[in-house]
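Minutes, project check-in

Agenda point 3 was the complex the collaborators sent over. CS summarized: two entities, 752 residues total, and the question is how they sit relative to each other. Sequences were read into the notes so everyone works from the same version.
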Amino acid sequence: MSTATETAGAVAAPTLAVWKFASCDGCRPALLDCRDELLAVAGRVRIDSVPEAAGGVAPGPYDLSLVEGSITTPEDAARIRDVRARSRYLVVLGACGSSDGIQALRNYADVADVADGAFQGRVGAAYPSPLYLSTLKYSAPVRDHVKVDYELRGCPVDRGQLLEVITAFLSGRSPAIPDRSVCHECEARGAACVTVTYGAPCLGPVTQAGCGAICPAFHRGCVGCVGSARQARTEAMALLLLAEGCAPDRLLRTLMPANPANPANPADPGHRAPGLAVARTAADEAAGREREEGRREP
Amino acid sequence: MTSRQERLLEVGSLARVEGEGALHLVLDRGRVTEARLNIYEPPRFFEAFLRGRSYTEVPDITARACEMCPVAYQLSACRAIEDAFGVSVGPDVRSLRRLLYCGEWIENHALHIHLLHAPDFLGYPDATELAKDHRAVVARGLALKKTGNDLVELVGGRAIHPVNVRVGGFHRAPPRSELDDFKNRLDDALEAAVLTVRWVAGFEFPDFQTPHALLTLDDPGPKGGARSGGGPRYPIDAGDGVITTAGIGFPLEDFEHFVSETQVAHSTALHARLRGVGTYLTGPLARYNLAGPRLWPVAADAARSAGLGRVERNPFRSVLVRAVELVQAVAEARAIIESYTPPDPPAAAIRPRAGRGYGATEAPRGLLYHRYDLDEQGVITAARIVPPTAQNQAAMEADLRLVAQAGAQLTDAQLTARCEQAIRNYDPCVSCSTHFLRLHRDERRHRHLDPAGS
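CS then shared the predicted structure for the full assembly.
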């Protein structure tokens, strides 16, 4: 299914293709939301939507390919190479394609593993842990398979940022996506700090801005959808939260949130797992104390 | 209109592409010998990786099963966990949940009716082509979809993967002032939805009666009965039991006794059967047949004037039921905002305890069942999710076989179109509804429907 609008005079319209791999399909709709602006900014763009049915590849070539999803099967690994070959620029959309997807949570194993230390052994080791990578064999970020020109993170991506990335690539400049933390967006939004106000652990200080600080505005800690901010210091944050009385188990779960840009994930560029190690140690100590106290009691 | 706006709808057509699947159909000398719905969507093992996660994390995890119905996943999960913990949420939380859920229904139904299914009935290859001749109608569909999206964003914080849902209720109750502004939008939407029912009523519907049992959630309404504005409600966000047209009804905790799932090689989805009955359908047709009398007058009137009878067993007319449900969802959303009291506190207090809980809601495409086992800390030890498309798949295939058989004399192109149209009757979520199928004959005079390789 390949559709196109007319091209403008003698100048060929830039072509844009959109592809889906393993994901919930939640990032591509953002493109629909910014269609008006896209047409206004980029002029006449030809957009090809490509069905993902087995083997379905429109010929291209494309000026810009937008890719959603992680690579989970050998067929998809071949397909992404084909997409790359047909694309001048390849931009990955969302947490699945840039970190490997919520479906990769299976690779972290049960928290039962956390209890017996296997989890720490797997993730707490130096990056990238070969053992961990082998578990990722069938769910991996796009950049593990092909050269990626840009990753727009988020779960889902923000439509304003998507518009910026597309227009930047089509006009040959670098996307202006801020790499500061969500804290700046809280300030801009006038949202109260949830850690200060409610004592809630929040990934905002170590998470890259982009969502508009939605979670803090809804009175809950940031869950880190966008992934690490450039200067994330998760270890320091974890120590501070523990010092302020945050329960180790709660901190652990904060650092292993329910989204693909999981900070325990070595694919996450910020490598926030040192914070996880801090929380792990604290949780072990707390568990040890509990056992001690249990032993002392009659 | 200008070519710019035509291009605009090219992007809109992306919405037709979600999920991965295909139909495989074999005809032997005019007789259908095989009808299989292949679902390629890679399994994502949600039930496995939910184990070991705290109950607090479940709404954020399950939302990401699907961008089309994250609210359904979040609220089925919340209800199951609240059931396990013996928590009962207050009427204000229930109302706000129903409002959020109405947003998801509005968004899904508006999209499916106008952009996914209407082109089949009116003989267009896609919504873009449809828009060239019916621009106002497509614009109305997009506006309704946006109203649904914006309502989910207003209550949930984000249209895709809302952040505001938690076990027990919400993280933050929106103040009245934030919701009040939305009433005008819903007034417009109600007018538009009624027009949509009228428009869809004019479609030509292929003659077909599904032989399958129908199954839906039973929502007896808030405790206190009619005095508290209660009484049985059209099933959306809540319900503790299941009713069917097969003379079987059961409480939710017996769901897995009455519904068995079997794995089939050609699909990553499981096939469900109703014990002692066989295949069944869940979704708009089931809701309408089993709970139609619970529709509000504005929706019931629309149904009547559209020619829907008390019983409706033609799946091709499910698009009409969807339009009626669109009216219902918009009207309910409007009324909930009118009488809205922010829940205070926004969530019921939660005290984890070991146990098992069951929860179900009616996703736009049918009943979504969740069951969780939790330990005394509130950590998941086992999870079971039964989505509507898995429940429908066996019945869909059986219906497709009948539809294909009835259309065996059609040309390849006509039969392909008819089968695609039939698949979309069920609005499958992992989904063939979005694929173009290609019919080709092989030398043994068999015909196969495969996904177009484009």
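Noted in discussion: Residues 38 and 329 of chain B are 32 Å apart (CA to CA).
Follow-up: revisit at the next meeting once the mutant set is ready.
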